[in-house]
Amino acid sequence: MNTQLEIIEAEALKLPPSDRSHLLERLVASLDIDPDVERAWEQEADRREAALEAGKVAEVSGEEAIKRLRARLGL
Fold it and tell me: Which residue in 49, 68, 50, 71 sits closest to 60, CA to CA?
């Protein structure tokens, strides 16, 4: 017998990718968020943006970042 969660999951997986993405965003946003953690992430984002604007660091594509991490980890 399927539980309600299993039924919802099966139905959600039938959705097109864009709808699943939208549903995921809504579900994550509905979770209780720790205000201290959110504040810390906002401060970190601001710090990183300021470092970029000041020229202290250079932007790297996601592909390049993963390549560098794999090299460091010997993967």
Answer: 68
Q: What are the CA-CA distances from residue 60 to residues 41, 64, 74 (Å)?
A: 20, 6, 20
pLDDT tens string 9-64: 999 999 999 999 999 999 988 887 888 988 999 999 999 999 999 999 999 999 99
Which residue bears the tokens 């205000």? 35
Query: How far is it, in rounded angstroms, from Cα 57 to Cα 13?
Result: 40
Could you tell me the pTM of the whole model?
A: 0.50
Residue-range domain boundaries for the chain:
1-31, 35-73
